Amino acid sequence: MSNKEKFIQEVAEGYTFEGDSIVLGGAMLNGEAITNSLVKLPLKTMNRHGLIAGATGSGKTKTLQIIAEQLSENGVPVLLMDVKGDLSGVAVPSDGHPKIDERHAKIGIPFKASGSPVEFLTLSDEKGARLRATVSEFGPVLFSKILDLNSTQSGIVAVIFKYCDDKNLALLDLKDFKKALQYAIGEGKEEIKEAYGAISTASTGTILRKIVELEQQGAEVFFGERSFDVDDLCRFDDNGKGMISILRLTDIQGKPKLFSTFMLQMLAEVYATFPEQGDADRPKLVIFIDEAHLVFDEASDALLDQIEAIVKLIRSKGVGLFFVTQNPTDIPDSVLGQLGMKVQHALRAFTAKDRKAIKLAAQNYPITDYYETSTLLTELGIGEALVTVLSEKGIPTPLVHSLLRAPQSRMDVLTNSEIDNIISKSSIISKYNEVIDRESAYEILSGKIEEAKEEEHQAKMKKEQAKASKSKSRSKAEKSTFEKMVNSTAGRTVVREVTRGLLGVLGIKTSSRRRKSSWF
User: Fold this and answer.
1) Tens-place pLDDT, residues 362-401
2) DSSP string covering 204-273, please?
3) Are 186 and 154 in a shared domain?
4) In the chain, count of helices (H) and strands (E)?
5) What per-residue confidence (pLDDT) applies to 304?
């Protein structure tokens, strides 16, 4: 058996699955595509997470688009994080091209143009259904980790949450939490000290500064009502296709704190809400996190630990996470080790550091007799990738140099009018874009603070009035005593004697002056 025949056999055995699968592309050997030697992704292990990596312009975003539309076609809902703004085209069919037909002929599959059902979501002022969550939904532990607080500061956050729970004070947005914190070190200091212990003013100052930092990245838009129901990510269209929810994040690249805050809260909400699924024939939801380094670059150790825990646990809920980034080293090793599927596009070696990174990246893939992985990583063409996935038995498939299929949808952005047309048909946008600002901790505690200030003001006024009244009474008493003394015989005698003494001295001085004047 020739080396090529052996390779074809290994690919056929490694990428043949019992359950449903999607075709990603065709196998390549020595730079040439081998027709009908298909590279597939089993739906059953798509909840084991994955990585799509590669240099800018190598085609990783189109790979994301291919997998998302194939999942949708197979009845799996998808959430896409569209940081660069180039994924909206998945909603409409491709215009086709001779080069696409040529590529598919090499792979051995026909090209079929089609669009997918799309829902646009937003964290900011982009068009789409608004995503929000309340502070209460974060809980004290996650909220403290988002703010990167130490144990003492986290304890204060826990006290604030506990106090608000006990007093039925809703913590909906950041101004609610800040007002509760202000109340805890001000007017409510004694009340909280008696029930929960003393709170350090220095620590509350640090917490407030952390919240301000979060607000400066636009977090006040994210916190509030109406909270987004993660079940709305798992919808289908009338034809049974999974809905592709596209979260438009084009204005979030400079706000990594907000992005990581949203991601962690949403994953925590999905984990808390979705029922255990066990081993199912397909995932319930697949989430693609584009520009994944934004999640990890600014993350604290506590936040990374939380993300690692969620990545490990969330697959039992039937949810797959796919991180899309330039280099596998952008993902922490603890998370990278949990990713069962890897699609690696070309990496560029411009510096010694780049070459070292490529050697490290090559070590993340199964050993193969057919490729020199570290060399091939720098030679991959656009739309080509090294692929390995987990089989249905949880075993990594052979590493294959693959020629990827073309997206069935448009490989370009939608126009504003096309986006408006999709949004006009949305069944959830009116639900989530309604502005709700019900009475919460801010309003209630503001009222208490004003009452306390008014009571303090009234007490101060009464005290001043009492002091003034006492002073007036004392003055009257003194005047009355003096008048009685003057009017009495003894009093008149005393006054007369005092007056005489004063005038007598003056008189003596006057007489002296007169005598002196007569000497001249």
Assistant:
1) 888 888 999 999 999 999 999 999 999 999 988 999 999 9
2) HHHHHHHHHHHHTTTHHHHBSBSPP-GGGGS-B-TTSPBPEEEEE-TT-TT-HHHHHHHHHHHHHHHHHH
3) yes
4) 19, 12
5) 81
Residues 351 and 246 placed together within one structural domain of the fold: yes
Q: Could you write out the DSSP letters of every residue in 111-138?
A: -------EEEEESSSSSSEEP-B-HHHH
**Residue 457 is assigned to a structural domain of this protein:** no
Asked, for residue 459, whether it belongs to a domain, the answer is no
Could you give the CA distance from residue 50 to residue 338 in angstroms, rounded to a whole number?
Answer: 8
One domain for residues 323 and 347:
yes
**CA dist., res. 289 & res. 79, Å (int):** 8
Neighbours of 451 (CB within 10 A): 11
347/422 same-domain check: yes
Tens of pLDDT, residues 9-57: 999 999 999 999 999 999 999 999 999 999 999 999 999 999 999 998 8
Task: Write out the residue range of the structural domain in which residue 165 sits.
Answer: 135-220+439-452
CA-based torsion, 140, 146, 150, 153: positive or negative: negative
Range with the poorest average pLDDT among 25-34, 157-166, 452-461: 452-461
